[in-house]
Write a structure and sequence with these properties.
This protein has about 170 residues and is of the alpha+beta class. It has 2 domains: about 70 residues; about 55 residues, no CATH class. The chain has 4 helices and 5 strands, in the order E-E-E-H-E-E-H-H-H. A 5-stranded mixed sheet has the order 3-2-1-4-5. Strand 4 and strand 5 form a beta hairpin. The relative contact order is 0.05. The C terminus is likely disordered.
Amino acid sequence: MPDGPVLIKKYSNRKLYDPSQSRYITLEEIAGLIRQGKQIKVINTAADEDLTAVTLAQIILEEEKKRKHLMPVYFLHQLIRYGESLQHLFQRGLSSSLETFIASQIEARKVWKELGTGGWVPPGWMADRVQTASNHSEESAHDSLKAEIELLKESLDRLEQKVRDAEPKSAESL
């Protein structure tokens, strides 16, 4: 598949057509493409007009109907009230916040995946003392992480004690 956006054509009969698949496509299917990480571009075939933003807004409104409260009502009131004056601030702020959120979510998934697989076990630890986050609810996973941190602290304390115990002996032998 090319690196460019998936082209969707909107005909005068209001149907959306995906030429790459040679079939009509629904808003829900377009949302699915976007969730897969694909970019889309919607073109009005009659006027050769870009309808991407309108179509994406329509998808968001359809999601709002299904899920309820995707966006707070107060926020929607403010968006309508201040319209264009908020547009630039909103675009920059929301884009930046969304990028930060996505990056945090990706990083959190990596951490949870590592913890969930029970991968790395520090030397000297018994494997049965390590609990994987994937076998527990979110709350017990949090408790499990706390327990692992405590075990790490204990190990660190033992290592520090060994270093302190070894220092005087090496000084006395000189």
